[in-house]
Each structure stands twice: as C-alpha cells, then as structure tokens.
Protein 1
Amino acid sequence: MSKLLIAVRHPFDLWNAPSWFSERLQKDFPSVSVIHLNGYEGMDREILDSEIVLAWSVRSEQIKSARKLRWIHSPAAAVHQLIFPELVHSDVTLTNAREVHGPVVAEHVIALIFALAKKIPQSVRFQQTRTWAQQQVWDEFPHPSEIAGATVGLVGLGSIGREVVKRASALGMRVIAVREHPEKGSDGAEQIFSPAQLDDLLRQSDYVVLAAPVTTATRALIDAARLAKMKPSAFLINVGRGPLVDEAALADALRLKQIAGAALDVFSQEPLPPDSQLWELPNLLITPHTAALTEKLWERHYTLFSENLRRYLNREALVGIVDKQKGY
C-alpha cells in the first residue's frame, strides 16, 4: 500500500488543505494510506515511510531520511523553495500546481489592466474624500485609455502567460511575449522574443506583465536599466514572484514618473512590511498576493492531484512535472 503524506500548513487559511481533501482521496483511492497532518509536527516521523508527499516545502534532511519517497507535489506554482541539491539530485519526481493557478491569475491580470487603464484606484481615492474629480482624473498623465489596440508584453509564456494571451487577445489587445525557448511557438501571441530580446519587448509594450519563474537568470530581471527601456506611458504588472523586480528601482521610477504606474501582487518580502516605501506611491496598485484566490481553489487542486495520483498508481506520465535542474 502506498502512503501519501499531506503536510500543508500556512498562516493564511485558504492555503491550508481542508479536511474533506484527504477524506475524499482516501475514499477515491482505497489502496493508498492517506495521512493528513494539521501542522509540521510529526512530519519528520511520517515522511520516513511515505511514498508521496503533498507539501509547500520539505527540508533537505527529510529528503535524505525518506527512503521510500518517489513523488513530491507542491500546491504552489513556484517551487524555488524546493530546489536544493538533495532533491535536485535525487530520483524523486517533483510536480507543481501551475495548471490550477494559471487561469485564475490570468483573470487577475486582466482586472489590473482594466483598473490601470480606467484609473480606478484614483477614482476610489477621490470617492473616499467625496470629491467629484472628473477633471482631475482626466488631467493626470496618462489619460484614461482604451485597452483595445494596446500592447501587452508578457515575460513568461507558461500556464499564466498562455491564459493571459487568450483573454487579452479576446479583448482586442496585441500580445507579444518573451519565452526562454522561442522555438516552442507563440501559443497565440503575435510575436515571440528570446530572453536576449527583452528590451525590444519593453520598448513596445503598454502593459508589461511578469509571469516568469524565479531562477538565477530572472532575479531582479526588471531593474533600473530595464525600467528605463519602458514607455513613459507604460505600466508594469507583476503576478510572478517578487524577486523578479528590483523594488527599490521600481519605487524610484514611479516616484520620478519614469513610467505611468505599476500593479504588484507579489513582493520580495511577504507580508509587505508596514514601513515599506511601496505603500506610499500613489501610482502603484498593491494587491496582497490575491491573484490566485478563488472559492474553487481546493476543488481545482483536487481535480489535478487526483488525476496525477491515478496516473502515478497506473505508472503513467504525471502532469505538471518540474524540471529540477531549471527550477520550473
């Protein structure tokens, strides 16, 4: 009998696996012994004979001690916290939940584009002071704008990027993208750039959307020099991971109005500290890592994980396998 250990614990309630998740797995897969921990206490003991682990993170010493471990599934899309030598060089398969989060995060991207184009944050601030600010909203650069015909520059064409392409294209936007391997095709984007051509994408884009994984090559990818390549009327949107952006450089660019504005859902440090300078920037829209939140989250997780568990037991190829050498 295969043993499945679920050890998913987070301060944010929604990111914790509900009790029905393990109960349904046990019912649907009676040949699997399902152990669901409410915290990390006991994980060192339970992982010793576990064949499958569903967790946000696993420590290196746990990998060494888990002699039967064959598969780790992360309910997150980003897995950089799991990319350490003991796991990378093991024969343990690593999968992630990128297909769960992609469509939901793409909806958030479109919401942010609309909010920035129509200057919704400014209107909300004026509402709070009971100010009829029609003239002020119009006068402040850039003017409210149409999104049809605008150019979205995607950095990353994975599960999120592909879904953004579909939605933005349906709204009449022009979509261009940078992907690590341009030979994989456009996935519906009008033009594909290599990573070396990122500056060309930045120069053309009205909305630069970051949806790339965190790797050595992508840390601080958007720095002062890259921000200087963007149009003064352009917006930066980050729904990937905080380390993709040099936040100090972005703060300077926003303060000096080198770009029109930005919307960030992810940050280098989360929660964002109360004393962060980012809170004070009027041309920055902050959402507290809520892009992937949905009432259907764990149903979506169950659909993916149960299908993968079925495949695992039948010795079929899994969905969402992470290339441990590349980190995504």
Protein 2
Amino acid sequence: MAAISNVALTNTFDTWRIRSNQVFARVNQFAANESALYANTLTANVSFTSKGLATLQGRATVGTNLTVTGNTTLGVNPTSRNRFNGATTINNSLAVTGNLSITNSSSVATLNGRATIGKYLTVTGNTTLGTNPTSVHRLSGATTINNKLTVTGNASFSNTSGVFAVSAANVNLTGTGKTLVKTANTDVRGGTMLITSNVAVMGTGGIKFKDGTSITTAPSAGGGGGFFLSTLTASVQANVSSSAMTTVYTAPATAGKRYIIYSLRHVNSNTAYADVQSTAAIIRGANAHAITAAVPIPGATALELLKKPKVMYPSETLKMRTDAGTSKIIMTYATASDTTYFANGLLLNNAVANTLYTFTGASVVESVLLVNANTSQSIQATVEWTDSSNINKSYLSYGLVVPPQATVELMEDIGGTYFPSGDKIRVTAGASTPANALRAHIVGKTL
C-alpha cells in the first residue's frame, strides 16, 4: 500500500483537498466499523494487547515467545494449522478447532489450564499438560507424540475413531488413574485390570503371571497334569532308608514364597528286590501333614506318589522313610511368588467332625487327600462342605472306605472346585477308626 505524501505550506488548496480525501478514503478502507479495524498486514514494533476476545481465523505464525493470559481460540477453520515454534505459555483455556503443531524440539510448550483439542495434535518436543492435578486434558482426534509426554492431571483419550500414537521412549500418565503406558514395556498398575476385547501379545517373552509362571507359545499344563510342564524350576534327589524319617527337601525361609511339588517319585532300589513301604509327610512346626503312610511298592518298581500337587510354605520340610533297605527319591517343584496358594493337614483321633480348612476368601481347591496309616483296617471317611456355622452344604465323600495303607485323592479327575469365602471343609472318621490312623490334606488357591 503506497504512502500518502505530506502537504506543504506552498501547496495549493486543491492539493490540500486531494491529499485530505486520500487520507479519508484510506481510513475508511481500514475501518470495518467505529470499533473495528481491518488490514491485510499489520506490523508493529510495540506489544499487542487485546482487552477482549482475540480470534485468529487463519494461519498463525509466532516466531518468538507468545504469552496468553486470557482465553484464546485459534482457528475456526478445521483445516487450518496453528503452529507454536517458540517457547509458549498459556495460562488459561486453549481451544483449537484446527490442527495444532508444536514443532520446535528445543522449545517447551506448557498448557497450565484445560486443553481441548478437537482435531490433530502433533508434538515433536517435550510437552507437559497440566501442573494442576484436577485439570482435564482431552485428546479426541488422531494424536501423534514423538517425544516425551507427561500428564500430571487427568487425561482423556476419547475418540475411538482417532489414532493415538506414541513413539517416545517414555510416556508417563501420573494422574488419579495411576496408569503408566510405555511403547516397549507396558505396566498396568492397580487392583484389577478388566479387558473386554481381544488381547494380542506380540512380544517374544509371552505373558508372565504374578506367581512367576509364564505362557510363551502355548499354555503349559498345570495342576500336576499334562505334558511338558514348563513352570517347573528345580528337582532334588535323596536317599531314604528305614532308620528314620529323612529330610528330602527344606523350603527356603524367604517370606512371600510358596513351593509347589508336582512330582514325588519313589524308586524301590532295594538290592534284594524286596517290597518296601513308603511314608511321606510335610513338617510344619510340630505337625506332620501326611502325604502317604506305609504305601507298598513292589520290588524293582517305582511309584509316583502324587496325583495332584502339594504346597509347601517357607521353612517347611518334606520328610520320607521306607521300612526296608534304601530307596531313591526324586522331587520336582516350582517356586511361586504368591502367598495365595494354601495347604493344610489334619490328624483325626476321634469320630467327630474336624475342620480341615476355613476359606479366607473365594478359593479353588485342587486336592483333598485322605491317608489311611493303619496297616490292617479300612477306615470310613466323610468329607463335607459347610458354611461358616458348620451347616452342611454338600459332601466331597460320604462314608468312603479307605483301604489299609492307601491314599485316596478325592479330586483326581476334577480341575479344581470353587468354594466361597468363610465356608469350610470338615472331615469325620468312622466310629471304629483306630486312633490317629486317618489323615487328611488339602491344597488350593485363594482367588
């Protein structure tokens, strides 16, 4: 726009008139009305202060610092792009209806108020959303963040049709939801994770569970059955004889652990090929929880003593003996960092109901084992499920005959049975049972 020449004292009145009309026409072109001005380009060497609403309807380029203390709306045209290339501080609400691009990786963009972005947000530098933990930051469109994203308030990613892509190494969402998301490792922290859609695990490491077990290419067999039980962690070997109960394995005293025995194999290695009898018990303090009692093993044979796994607590000891010669024992087990596995044993010395276990939470029972330690007399055993007041709900066995020197697994063909919190498993020996002859053992897991 060409400049208007000044009027000199030597100019004629007509020149004054022409120059004045040029000024009036120029001002009328610049003024939209009495309170609004219009110009294609406005250049000023002083600060620009807006006392009211400032609206940028087109493309806005800020080459240095932009400080906004009031509400600011950038772009009513959804196809426009609004760029912040320098350090930008916005202390109040920022509403962007078009694309927002923060492209200078050396700059810092800080949004201290509520940020609502209805379309694309592209961030290539470090971005902090909200020092106020009560603020809400919504990203409802396709969002790409190529560097660090830190959200100290509540974050909402609400547009299911959009794409939220995070290619940064560290993405921390530390608001009240306490959700940490990473592109390499994903750590979901909280009491319960509910997944209502399909889950695909793409990494080579598979899924690792709280008890230390894992799934890689296919689920491993559990509960003492199946093939190639990949959760096993160790095995031990021991020689047992008739002289005394021999320690086969002592569990470490480490708190928070459980030791799950999946296999206990007794090999009759008596050099005279004579029959032997196998007795095994888990020692908990002063109590011996029997697994077998004088189970016969013919000469030159071996016997797997477990049909279902058994659980040992820290510092407990597995002891065994044979009635003749020396035998070889192989025990295979897994270590679990999960105290929800439980076990208990009971020695019945009378013909009244005794509580084997009271469930402290909803539980799955994997094994209920009955052991007859008498070498000549059968024993009848009743195992019942009661409520917390000992009122019968059902039976696991009723008057079941357990032969002499026999062990009977009541859940041999069951993958586990569910029991509610507070309920009980109670065992009653037959009226003619010899004292201390019937033993019971339970193994399960609190859910």
Protein 3
Amino acid sequence: MVLVEAIIFIIAIAVLIKASKWVIDSSIAISEYTGISQLAIGFILIAFSVSIPDFVVSVTATLIQKTPMAIGDILGSSIANICLVLGVVTLVRKVRVERMHTLESAELLLLISIVPAVILSKGVVGPLEGVILLVVFAMYCFFIFRDKFSMNIKDGIKRKEWRNVIFFFIIGVILVIISAHYVVTSAAVIAVFFGISEAVIGLTLISFGTTLPELALDFTAIRRGQCALAIGDILGSTVINLTLILGTVLLLSPTGGLALMSYTIPLAFIIIANSLLFYSLVKKEGIGHREGLLFIILYIIFVMLMLTTRMV
C-alpha cells in the first residue's frame, strides 16, 4: 500500500514540476512583450506563477483537513526560496543588484516575515489572523504597484503565439491542481506509515518539490545575467507565501483555531534567512559565493532539525 502511494507521490511531483514549468514559461513569454523591468516582472508574473504549486497544495491540504501539512509547505517553501534557491544559484554566479532597486523590497520582506511569526506565536490562530495576513498582502501590493511599474504591451504579437501561450498556461494550471491533490493525499499516507508528522512532511518533502521549478527558473535567469528578475522572483514569492497563501489557509481553517506553537523553529529560520538576505542586498549590494554557501548550510541544518524534531 505505502509503495503504491510512494509511486503516486513521485509521479504527482514530477507532473507538478513539469506543469509548473509550463506556467512559468508562459508567464515569461507574456513578459517578453511588456515594458516592465526585470525586477517588476520577477514579482508580478514570475513570483505569482511559481507560487501556484504552493497555493494549490496548501489550499488542497487545508480543504481535506491536513492544515499542518499546508502550514509546513508554506513555511518550508519560504525557507527553501531563500536558502536553497538563492544559495544554489549564487554558488554558480555572484548576484549584483543596485542597492536602490532592492532596498525597499528587502526591508519590507524582513518586516513581513516578522508578521506571521508574531501571529503564529499566539499559539492558536484562525480565520481572523488569515484576514490580517491578506490585508498585509494587499498593502504590499499597493506599495509595489503605487508608481513603479507600467504595462506597455508591444505591438506585433502573432495571434498563434498568444494561443500557444494561453493554451500551455491553462493546461499547466489544470495539471498543477490535479497533481497537487495527489501529492497531498499520498504524502499523508506516507507520513502515517512512517510515523512522521504531516507538518514535517510539508516542511521538507513537499516544500522541496514545489520549490524545484523556481530553482530551475532562477538558476537559468542568473546564469543569463538576469539577476534582478531572479531577486524579484525570490522576494515576491516569499512575500506571497507568508501573506497571501498563509492568509488563505488560515481563513479556510477551522473556526476553533489551530495550535501552531510547534512552528517556532521554521519561523526562526525564516527570520534568520531574511535578515541575512537583507544584509547582503543592502550592505553588499549583492550575494557572493560565500553568502550562497552559508544559505545552503542554513537549509541543510533546517532540514536535519525538522527530520529529528517531533511536531504536530
């Protein structure tokens, strides 16, 4: 039985990764015809696209009463976005971004990462806290779109090109939704069989799987010298995880509330990782090989702690 579920999980993760790539590629194709800056594209299009797997997986888990797995995926993905994705890509190439382009976003990300920590540290949370996080997300979007970005669609786009882009985007989203369902249900069976908590499964295995498309995207972007796009994606997707997705999960959670004090360790890692990112971007105007290695070591320590710590 568990072998079958393991096979289903592997297939579902593979489909999820492939479908996510279609969604991401479609978003990039759209962005190529716009006049938006790379940093803006990273947040507006790419970050939203790469967050679809986490959103669907987390909402699916919540709807089938596997909320600890949903919370685990959200927090685990947020840590993986910075420590794993940024760590791996900066080992290949140093990231240099002008301070003026990242200062405000880095400051906001650090502040926003503290908000979920404060909310979840209450011990019992529910829909009210979800609304608070959604309001924070709306405020962040207002700041981002206030007077920075404009969409100037270029002329001369072939109708056939748009049809292909939209087709793969829609098919990708549908496959993401279907595969996410099987990822959650099979992971729950595997967790029960091995006596591992659903939260740990979400923090490690599922979050790693949903982060792989982003790792591939940002690795390619930085290798091509599109550092601002990658940074915009990492900053944006982390904010989306900690506000929009977490807020939605809490909004759909039982009205009686959820006991979440056991998430102290991942929340601490999120704040540490964001603090290191803030320092690197603001003080050094980029991230070098040394910082990248430090991020990876931080992620390895996090995974080891999660696999050896009992959680809800």
